[in-house]
Structures are given as C-alpha cells and as structure tokens.
Design brief:
With 310 residues, the protein is α+β, with helices and mostly antiparallel strands. The chain has three domains: 190 residues, Jelly Rolls (Sandwich), CATH 2.60.120; 46 residues; 60 residues, Orthogonal Bundle (Arc Repressor Mutant, subunit A). Helices cover 46% and strands 17% of the residues. The chain has twelve helices and ten strands. The strands form two sheets. A six-stranded antiparallel beta sheet has the order 1-2-9-4-7-10. A four-stranded antiparallel beta sheet has the order 3-8-5-6. The radius of gyration is 20 Å and the shape is globular. It comes from Clostridium chromiireducens. This is Helix-turn-helix domain-containing protein. Keywords: DNA-binding, Transcription, Transcription regulation. One of its GO terms (molecular function) is DNA-binding transcription factor activity.
Length: 310
C-alpha cells in the first residue's frame, strides 16, 4: 500500500510540475482543476472580499507542506493529507520549506453544490465516513484510492481531447470519495435543507459583500434566521471565530492585498476597508500578521520576489 501511495505521489508531482509553467496558482483546461507551484516560502489567502460565492473544494498537498491558519488555529497539511474546504473563510496558507529544486506543489479540485446534491440524492448513496466536523476547513488522511482518482484526472491534461468526456466522471468519483471520507459531512451540510451550515454560509457571503460596513449582531442573526445565542454558537463552530473577528480578518486581508499589489498605500487601504483610525489598523495588522504593514509588505516581497498570491 505504501509503495502504491509513493508511486502515485511521484507521478502526481511530476504531472503538476510539468503543467505549472510559472509561480503561483494556475487554472487548467479542466474547469474544476487548478494547480500551484511555489519555489520559495510563501503566504497566500484563500478568501478575499472581492471574490464571489466560493465553491467547496479539495486540495492535495502534492509536495512540500501547507499550514492553514484559521482564526487562532493552525492546521498542518503534508503529502499524506488532503484539505477539505466547504465554506469561503478568511484563511491564510503558509509554506515555509520550499526551494527551486523541491518546490511546493498543490492540486485543487472544486465541486459545485449542484454536483454534491446530485450524488447525495442518489438512492444508492450510503454514508460511511466516521469523523464529523462543523468547521469550514479540515485536514484528512489521504489514501491510495483517492490519490489514484486524482492522478487519473490530472493525467487528462496530457490528453485534452479526453477532457470533456472523462473529466466529469473522474471529478464525480473524487467527490464521492470525499463525501465518503473523513469530514465528508462538512460538504453534505452545505446542501442539506435546514442545516445551520447553510444559514451560516449565507451570512458569511453577506458579510463578505459588505465587509467595509459596520454591522449589528441582531442583523446578522436575522440573515442566518437564528436567535442571537444560536447564531454565535454556530458561527464559531463553522469559522473558529466570532463575527467581529471574522470581519476583522476580511478587512485586514483585503488591506494587505491592496498594499502589496501597489493599488493603495497603507493609509488609503486602511480607510478603504473600513478603518477610521490608522493607529488601530496598524495595531491590529501587527497583531494578526506579526509585523507592521510597511515592514510586512517589504518582507513578503523579499520572500516571494514580488509574486505573492494574496
């Protein structure tokens, strides 16, 4: 079994490396599939206020490592893991061990809610996953069956004519294995009528679209169709943060992106994302990212050679 896993891991690493022609995230001819290569230590944000509704996804750490920072928690992913994301959260990824000789390689597969619902609605579908979690992102153990299916999907990049016919089949197989695996329940909840996760997902989208504006907890609870105590409990179960912490992360990550891209200076970015006090912005930025804004951006540009995906 270990020999099989090692064989598939090597083949997948070769495929991802060959089909990534530059640093960072790259879409492919397969609509649901994206590949990433990083030859230096890097930081990246999964979510951003400018994005639309996020599709659930599976990310394979093909080579290297990926630390997931969610609120105050840090989850570690490596080549023996896959990452299941069910909801758009202000997550930061870090990978500090990388080099041109042994780059970090990732493979991301997105699933539409309609495809999830299609599989769950099948009369023959039986749930076998043992572990449950209400969190919007989880790290699970990768097995040879899942790895085999992912390799077959990525192999299609070498045979573009086969993509329209086989990619949907392989994607459905990978989703089936994800739903049946550890934390598959986190994907099932986002299409289950009446599930608190659906209501929290709607609230998250509302907050993401209006992150610059102040909000009242009563209004957010109304969007979620919950009482205030129930809303607080379910929101933290899914996001690992309070609503205020969540909004703060959205604001800080968007400000960081704007500053690093050169779109705005520090003062303009802090005002744009909703801060009225530059001092408060700098203090909260330093607390979140470990460095004041200007020092942080200078450091990231040096680390990433100005190619950070953030």
């Amino acid at each position: 079994m270990l020999n099989q896993i090692s064989y598939f891991q090597k083949e997948l690493a070769d495929l991802v490396y060959r089909h990534t022609h530059m640093e960072g995230y790259q879409p492919t001819q397969i609509p649901c599939l994206g590949l990433s290569r990083y030859s230096t230590a890097h930081y990246s944000s999964l979510a951003g206020p400018s994005r639309g509704l996020y599709n659930p996804s599976l990310c394979i750490v093909v080579q290297g490592s990926k630390d997931i920072i969610l609120g105050g928690e840090r989850l570690k992913g490596g080549p023996s893991n896959y990452i299941v994301s069910s909801i758009d959260l202000p997550i930061i990824f870090e990978a500090m061990e990388s080099s041109p000789e042994v780059p970090n390689l990732y493979c991301k597969i997105e699933f539409t809610p309609s495809l999830i619902l299609e599989l769950l609605s099948a009369e023959e579908f039986k749930v076998t996953g043992k572990r449950t979690s209400k969190r919007g992102v989880n790290v699970a153990e990768l097995d040879v069956s899942m790895l085999d299916a992912v390799v077959r999907l990525v192999r299609l990049l070498d045979k573009p004519a086969d993509i329209p016919f086989l990619a949907p089949l392989f994607t459905k197989e990978i989703l089936y294995k994800t739903l049946q695996g550890d934390y598959g329940d986190s994907l099932r909840r986002i299409v289950t009528d009446g599930s608190p996760t659906i209501h929290i997902r709607n609230t998250i989208q509302h907050m993401t679209n209006n992150f610059q504006n102040p909000f009242r907890i009563e209004d957010l609870a109304d969007v979620a169709k919950m009482s205030i105590p129930s809303f607080h409990r379910h929101f933290k179960e899914v996001t690992a943060m309070s609503p205020i912490q969540f909004q703060k992360q959205l604001r800080l990550q968007e400000a960081r992106r704007l500053i690093l891209s050169g779109s705005m200076n520090v003062a303009d970015a802090s005002f744009h994302v909703g801060y009225e006090s530059h001092t408060q912005f700098s203090r909260e930025y330093s607390r979140t990212f470990g460095f004041p804004p200007r020092e942080d951006v200078k450091r990231l540009k040096l680390i990433n050679d100005a190619s950070v995906d953030i």
